[in-house]
Specification:
This protein is mainly alpha-helical and 882 residues long. Helices cover 72% and strands 4% of the residues. It folds into five domains: 1-68, no CATH class; 73-419, Na+/H+ antiporter like fold (Up-down Bundle); 426-481; 487-634, Globin-like (Orthogonal Bundle), CATH 1.10.490; 700-824, Jelly Rolls (Sandwich). Its main location: membrane.
Length: 882
């Protein structure tokens, strides 16, 4: 039979076999990986018994093809291991992984060294084999296998944190074990010399190099995937290539751990890929990788299990005793790390406390599998390793692996049940009953509506409705007996629900094309940190987290300075567009969350908690609204351009959805759809270009717009403009305080302020181009309102002393100011139409203050001048502009 036919028959036959095993494992209630190992051993025995005996037929040809197939350690490592690791790491929640990074590193690094030396020195007490050979065996069995551990824990439905701890350990401890294995194998074959120090340095180099290689490869692929967006086959193929390239580059070109490189690359793609890869592709990518992971997991287990009868061919009772020694040493060393070293991390504040029940399950769940068998196979294939050592390693490793699979693996479910880890906590149980009651009531109503719509007889639908009614009554009775949740617990639960829902809404708006990739990434990173704050501090953490997020960043300040001082507008334009889109996205999602509270959360947690959550969200929404209003005031023209850009992007997405709907309904052909899509792409690229930031602020124009200087000639306006001095104020800084004596007026070159006028319910907001405090130039009376910056503001200040020096030199300017002041003291009567309009139009009322005739002959104003509303013209200006 041709070699290609052999491989095709063998692989296709194995795939057909593994397709039947998942339902069998579910029926037998055994972990799928354990069943795979058992079937593999059975196939290995069948090969030894029947292969090569001259039989005919597909079954004998299949067994012969398996017997003739060259299953080497390199095939298993390079073909299956990268896919298996990538698929496992891709499904890991990176944020949750970093929540327990120190316990995971302890078990993935320290535990490997402890196990290696514990097993190695224990074996030297019971065998004449050399220490290096015993340590080599210890390194092989020190690594928990992701193919065994992860699949079993997922099948058992273990608690989420417990699963994360075990997944993280199994993903990362291969690096330490393989580094030690490589060093000890070199020492055994006289190619290397060294000890514990060299092993530690070798591990650090392998681990750091693998992390760096995987990170670079993952980021490069995330950049390359941009040009092929909306091409699902190309995007998914890139991730498959990434799994193999990162492994090969790390192993053969960098000299680092390929295992760590693959895991790191997958974590990078999993953390940022949802916004880099097109939304339509991401779901398909997850399904493809689940399929690839299933194939890799199944085939690597079957192929290694096929070799077990050959590896255990010469086993004796003494070997069984040595296997028990390995089991004992590995278990004791793992218990030492879990119950001795792990509490030290919690005591030092580096990790959350891990319960004894979790530690017991992690101890019992330290399964070994295909990785250990593959490393043992590599030893048996190395001609420079003595035959005695090859047999020693093959027998003990195989025996230990199958002990963990068939003893630990088959009893792991019972251990979890015994410790009660499969049961819900009281809080989770209460939430389950509340959610179930809500669901049952909704299903019952929909069933009744469905029966009415299809005119089903009441007798036919009555039994179904009654079953749901009985279940609902039982839930209500159970809820009456359970311990009630206190208010703070319910609020915290509600906030966790809201933050998780917020993250999903950001991704949803990104998939709809409303939010850009950068904004979606930032907002989802923020929700991750917000979730951590809620879990640790409850509502206090939720409130404390928002203030620094809404405030301006240092980068915004730097960009503003570059624009004001050097005329460089690009950085500020980018920061403004980014901030504007962030604020719009947050505002939209907050409003959707308010509806979500009323529709869902309130029914589960109660109306009292819903009111509290609504109040918390309302405060947060008000902060966002205020920040958005400040941005519009500070850059009014640019804000309009950004709003138009935002709406246009949403319109393009709606337009594209309509075109695809028309195509799905066969109204337009593929050719027409492609032509329309090209037009959409052109317009989308045009929208990606930021509009130019041009504040169009001319000092002469700015001064001329002040009512006090209205009608002045250009030379006099220019003279006043030369007196303006720049001043940068920070967000929240009070510029003018009520009760202070007025000594300057202020022009808002860029920014926004709020004027807190006594007697007004809401502050008067002013933005770029507005002025305030100009009456200080006429009379230095005390201010009657506070003026506070809403963001970073660039002000131009006109000091009263500088102004009076100019006035003393210019009689015409002095006469103009006197006429303006006189007009304000005696305003002309308003037309009848305007008076009627004011009677029916609500306006912001400001105190009517009589303006004294100023004394402009000297620097100081008349000392007996009555109090003046320094910001009165400010409020009037804001009304006129509005």
């Amino acid at each position: 039979m041709h070699v290609i036919v052999i491989y095709v028959l063998a692989v296709s036959g194995l795939l057909a076999l593994v397709s039947l095993l998942p339902p069998l494992a579910a029926r037998l209630r055994v972990p799928y990986t354990v069943l795979l190992a058992a079937v593999g051993v059975a196939l290995g025995l069948a090969i030894q018994t029947f292969a090569g005996q001259g039989g005919t037929g597909p079954f004998h040809d299949f067994l012969n093809s398996l017997a003739e197939m060259d299953i080497s350690s390199e095939v298993l490592i390079y073909v299956f291991l990268p896919v298996l690791l990538f698929e496992t790491a891709l499904a890991v929640d990176v944020r949750r992984l970093f929540d327990d990074v120190w316990p995971i590193l302890l078990m993935a690094v320290v535990a490997v060294f402890v196990c290696t030396f514990a097993v190695g020195y224990a074996l030297t007490l019971f065998t004449s084999m050399g220490l290096v050979a015993c340590l080599l065996l210890g390194a092989i069995v020190a690594t928990t296998d992701p193919a065994a551990v992860v699949s079993i824990f997922r099948d058992l439905g273990a608690p989420r944190r417990l699963t994360m701890l075990v997944e993280g350990e199994s993903l990362l401890n291969d690096a330490a074990a393989i580094a030690l294995f490589t060093l000890l194998l070199g020492m055994l074959t006289r190619n290397a010399h060294g000890g514990a120090t060299e092993a530690a340095m070798e591990f650090l180099r392998d681990f750091a190099g693998g992390v760096l290689t995987g990170y670079v490869c993952g980021r490069v692929v995330c950049m390359i995937v941009e040009p092929v967006r909306d091409q699902p086959m190309a995007e998914i193929t890139l991730t498959v290539a990434l799994a193999y390239l990162s492994y090969v580059l790390a192993e053969h070109y960098v000299g680092a751990s390929g295992v760590v490189a693959v895991v790191t690359a997958a974590l990078v793609v999993g953390s940022v890929g949802r916004t880099r890869i097109s939304p339509a592709t991401w779901g398909a990518l997850e399904h493809v990788w689940k399929q690839l992971g299933f194939w890799a997991n199944s085939l690597i287990f079957l192929m290694t299990a096929l070799l077990v009868p050959r590896l255990l061919g010469g086993i004796g009772w003494s070997d069984v005793g040595l296997v028990l020694v390995v089991v004992g040493a590995a278990t004791v060393s793992r218990a030492l790390v879990l119950f001795g070293l792990l509490p030290l991390l919690s005591g030092a504040g580096l990790a959350q406390r891990v319960s004894h029940a979790y530690k017991a399950v992690i101890l019992w769940g330290g399964l070994r599998g295909a990785v250990s068998l593959t490393l043992a196979l590599a030893v048996t294939e190395n001609g420079r390793v003595p035959d005695r050592v090859q047999g020693f390693v093959a027998v003990l490793v195989t025996g230990f692996v199958f002990y963990t699979l068939f003893i630990n693996g088959t009893t792991l479910r019972a251990v979890i049940n015994l410790l009660g880890l499969n049961k819900l906590s009281p809080v989770e149980h209460a939430m389950r009953n509340r959610a179930l009651a809500l669901s049952l009531a909704g299903v019952r109503e929909r069933v009744e509506d469905l029966a009415h719509r299809y005119e089903v007889d009441e007798q036919a639908v009555g039994s179904t409705v009654s079953r749901y009614t009985d279940r609902l009554d039982a839930i209500v009775r159970e809820r009456s007996t359970e311990a009630p949740l206190n208010n703070e617990d319910r609020v915290t639960i509600g906030l966790v629900i809201l933050v998780n829902r917020e993250e999903e809404l950001y991704y949803e708006h990104f998939r709809e094309g409303i939010l850009s990739r950068g904004v979606a990434e930032l907002l989802n990173r923020r929700t991750g940190r917000l979730l951590d704050a809620v879990k640790t501090q409850g509502r206090a953490g939720y409130r404390a987290f928002e203030e620094p997020f809404i405030s301006f960043t240092p980068w915004m300040r730097v960009a503003s300075l570059l624009h004001r001082r050097l005329g460089i507008h690009a950085p500020l334009a980018r920061r403004l567009a980014f901030r504007f889109e962030i604020l719009l996205g947050v505002r939209t999602v907050q409003r959707e969350l308010l509806e979500f509270i009323n529709d869902k959360v309130g029914q589960v947690l109660g109306t009292d908690v819903a009111c509290e959550l609504e109040g918390i969200l309302t405060v947060r929404l008000a902060m966002v609204e205020q920040a958005l209003a400040a941005l519009k005031l500070q850059y009014p023209d640019y804000a309009l351009l950004l709003q138009s850009r935002y709406v246009s992007r949403a319109a393009l997405r709606l337009e594209e959805a309509d075109y695809r709907a028309l195509f799905a309904e066969s109204i337009i052909s593929q050719e027409i759809l492609s032509d329309l899509q090209r037009d959409l792409d052109d317009r989308r690229r045009a929208l990606d270009a930021l509009p130019k930031l041009d504040l169009r602020l001319d000092l002469m124009d700015l001064v001329g717009r002040v009512p006090l200087f209205e009608g002045l000639e250009g030379d006099r306006l220019r003279g006043i403009a030369t007196l303006l001095k720049p001043r940068l104020v920070l967000p929240g800084e009070t510029i003018v305080r009520r009760g202070e004596r007025g000594d300057a007026m202020f022009f808002i070159a860029s920014g926004a302020v709020e004027v807190l006028v006594p007697g007004l319910d809401e502050p008067v907001q002013l933005g770029t181009g507005d002025v305030f405090g100009e009456m200080a130039l006429l009379t230095r009376q005390r201010r009657n309102a506070d003026v506070r910056a809403m963001g970073y503001c660039q002000l131009l200040v006109l000091d009263v002393r500088d102004f009076h020096r100019l006035v003393k030199k210019d009689a015409s300017l002095r006469a103009h100011l006197q006429s303006v002041a006189e007009a304000r003291r005696n305003p002309p009567p308003k037309p009848l139409e305007e008076a009627v309009g004011e009677a029916v139009t609500p306006v912001v009322e400001t105190p009517v203050v009589e303006v004294p005739k100023p004394d402009l002959s000297g620097v100081a104003p008349a000392p007996d001048a009555p109090p003046l509303a320094a910001e009165a013209s400010t409020a009037e200006g804001a009304q006129a502009r509005g």
